[in-house]
Amino acid sequence: MKRALTLHVNGEEHQVEIEPNRLLLHVLRDELGLTGTKEGCSIGVCGACSVIVDGRLVSSCLTLAIGCNRKNIETIEGLAKDGKLHPLQQAFIEYGGFQCGICTPGQIMAAKALLDENAKPSEEEVKEWMSGNLCRCTGYYKILESVMAVVDGKTDPNYTFRKRETTAKIQSLDVYKPVAKTN
Length: 183
What we know:
Layout: E1 3-9, E2 12-18, H1 24-31, E3 50-53, E4 56-59, E5 72-74, H2 87-94, H3 104-117, H4 123-130, H5 141-151, H6 164-171
Parallel strand pairs: 1-5
Antiparallel strand pairs: 1-2, 3-4, 3-5
């Protein structure tokens, strides 16, 4: 039996009716169209599905949506404000902290949760915190460098992004979403 649910996602209120066993990941992607949050492992170990719920980093692939009723949820789509990238998004581009982009939303949300809790973590604290997010493309050095650039205030506020696709990828915008093939 479906249940009515109110989700506060990226500052907007959403009313949905869902089965009580629906995971937050699937509600975000399928009901709200927020596909920036990725499904990687489905068992909460890769971090690709990381979102922030009431200030706490959670694996949305393990979190029942019904448990998020009336809670504040932050996803990658909500980080850029007024056309300006969040400093972490900017740093991941500026310092090359991503390649394919699958894990990037989870990496950025994990880093944001850390910086919300501790604005000046040490490099070791960043490494430990980010160890819950897996990346199959990089050696993690560029991810660490990107986060530390934000911690150390080394992002350039005048940095311009030449590639539209890169900026779209880091924000999970529609321009970067794959198109299904039709026969």
